[in-house]
Write a structure and sequence with these properties.
It contains 12 helices and 10 strands. By secondary structure, the chain is an alpha/beta fold. The structure holds ligand C2E and magnesium ion (3 copies). It comes from Agrobacterium albertimagni AOL15.
Length: about 280
């Protein structure tokens, strides 16, 4: 640390650093209590077949409503949980919750669970997944695991083997946030995925940006040629939906079809949209 010459200036920087560090420590401490205090919940967001407008999948998304700090976004606490290793316990809990609920849904609806790199690389992953499926009686083909390119960038040994073992269980693997990482295309040659999820940054300006349109169109065709399914994330407008449907996109996910919802609300949504999602016809 710098000597205390010009003390005030340093104190200014120190205290703002302290504030960030304090919040981080607080989050870390509170997170370890959160699961048991039931302030962590899992919400579900529908993925809808773009042609039939049927709900085909739901993504499990963590929510944390802290008694005094309020809602803390997964974008803030997941990276902390990854660093500290708390993601192990939390991630296992999310997976079991997802399987437990999905088994009550119609057979054609899958559930998707996000896996952090650390979870993916842990030796306990396979028994965890097998256990969660078996204990809840969920057939493997109804589970999707979402991984990101950051995992593949780790170049850790065993990634390929773990992906293969998971596939052999019969579940699907989706590559999340596709297009935002580095050298995505080489990963497609190296690893076998069942689904590509096009990142929402390409979807948000689909109507106004011809380049985004060209990229999305190409990715959809690429996925089809490589026999992968394809989903678009963050679909918010009717115009985006229409373009994606015309391009032959398989599934859409976003506020247009439905927000992430607590499980009771999601199951009510399923009942109300059992044939197809009505608001997508408006
Ligand atoms: P993700 O897996 O890419 O999830 C999609 C994110 O987009 C979610 O943010 C979702 O709420 C948001 N979203 C969905 N539709 C729309 C839309 O139409 N417009 C906009 N603007 N946003 C939309 P969320 O829930 O804040 O989660 C952020 C990220 O945190 C996730 O990104 C995922 O990487 C991570 N995450 C969430 N839950 C878990 C979990 O259980 N385990 C792990 N490892 N990561 C998780
Ligand atoms: Mg995801
Ligand atoms: Mg994503
Ligand atoms: Mg994303």
């Amino acid at each position: 640390r710098a000597k205390t010459d010009g003390r005030n200036r340093y104190r200014f920087f120190d205290s703002s650093l302290d504030a960030a560090a304090r919040r981080r420590n607080l989050i870390e401490q509170e997170l370890s209590l959160a699961v048991t205090q039931e302030s962590l919940t899992v919400h579900f967001q529908p993925l809808v077949d773009a042609q039939s407008r049927q709900v085909v999948c739901a993504e499990a998304l963590l929510r944390w409503n802290h008694p005094t700090l309020g809602a803390i976004s997964p974008g803030e606490f997941i990276p902390i949980a990854e660093e500290t290793g708390q993601i192990g316990a939390i991630g296992s809990w999310v997976l079991r919750q997802a399987c437990k609920h999905a088994v009550n849904w119609p057979d054609h609806i899958r559930v998707a669970v996000n896996l952090s790199s650390r979870q993916f690389l842990s030796p306990g992953l396979l028994p965890l997944v097998e256990g969660a499926l078996k204990q809840n009686g969920l057939p493997a083909h109804r589970l999707e695991l979402e991984v990101t390119e950051s995992l593949l960038m780790e170049k850790a040994i065993g990634v390929e083997q773990t992906l293969a073992c998971l596939s052999r269980l019969g579940l699907r693997i989706a590559l999340d946030d596709f297009g935002t990482g580095f050298s995505s295309l080489s990963y497609l040659r190296q690893y076998r995925f069942d689904k590509l999820k096009i990142d929402q940054s390409f979807i948000s300006d689909l109507e106004t940006n011809a380049d985004s349109r060209a990229i999305v169109d190409a990715v959809i065709r690429l996925a089809r040629d490589l026999r992968m399914s394809v989903a678009a994330e963050g679909v918010e407008t009717r115009g985006q939906f229409d373009l994606l449907r015309q391009m032959g996109c398989g599934e859409i996910q976003g506020f247009l079809a439905g927000r992430p919802m607590p499980v009771d609300q999601f199951e009510e949504y399923l009942r109300q949209n059992s044939i197809s999602v009505e608001r997508l016809y408006a």
